[in-house]
Amino acid sequence: MTKHNQEIGAWGEGIAAEWLAAHGREVVARNIRTPYGEIDIVARQGDVTIFVEVKTLTSSANFFPEAQITARKREHMLHAAQHYCAEHEIDHWQIDVIAVEGKPGLTPVVTHFENVV
């Protein structure tokens, strides 16, 4: 991954974390590594833990960030969430995807997909 892509990804994750907080979710952790891959954001709303995959693109003219969630990626997300839940004794959880379109300096477009797996 190029430095530019890393910067855009980190920016998108920050936007997603801000969006979650503004919409009543408590951001508990970010960039959690598991044997099955990284969890971008762990949030909580009430007694539900929310695992959030963030997809960021600077433009969706020909492409949508959420289209990057392949069957393989969903499987990795599911196993990473299950691993985290087992380690932290979590019973109620879901996996969400947040698509962020834009770039630093411009107002991003945020789309939230709940309970995708």
Structure description:
- The protein has 2 helices and 5 strands, in the order αβββαββ.
- The longest helix has 20 residues.
- 26% of the residues are buried.
- It has a single domain, classed as Trna Endonuclease, Chain: A, domain 1 (3-Layer(aba) Sandwich).
- Helices cover 32% and strands 36% of the residues.
- The protein has 117 residues and is an alpha+beta fold.
- It has a 5-stranded mixed sheet with strand order 1-2-3-4-5.
- The model has no long low-confidence stretch (mean pLDDT 90).
- It starts with a helix and ends with a strand.
What attributes does this structure have?
5 strands; 117 residues; 36% strand; 5-stranded mixed sheet; alpha+beta; Trna Endonuclease, Chain: A, domain 1; 32% helix
Order of helices and strands: HEEEHEE
Category from helices, strands and their pairing = alpha+beta
CATH class: Alpha Beta
Q: Report strand %.
A: 35-45%
In DSSP terms (H or I, runs of 4 or more residues), the helix count works out at 2
Shape call: globular
Question: How many strand units?
Answer: 5
Distance between the termini: 26 Å
CATH architecture descriptor? 3-Layer(aba) Sandwich
Radius of gyration: 14 Å
* Portion in helices: 25-40%
- Tally of domains: 1
Mean pLDDT: 90
Summarize the main sheet: 5 strands, mixed
Which regions are unreliable across 5 or more consecutive residues at pLDDT < 50?
none
In terms of quaternary structure, the protein is: single chain
User: What is the strand arrangement across the widest sheet?
Assistant: 1-2-3-4-5
Might you state the CATH topology name? Answer: Trna Endonuclease, Chain: A, domain 1
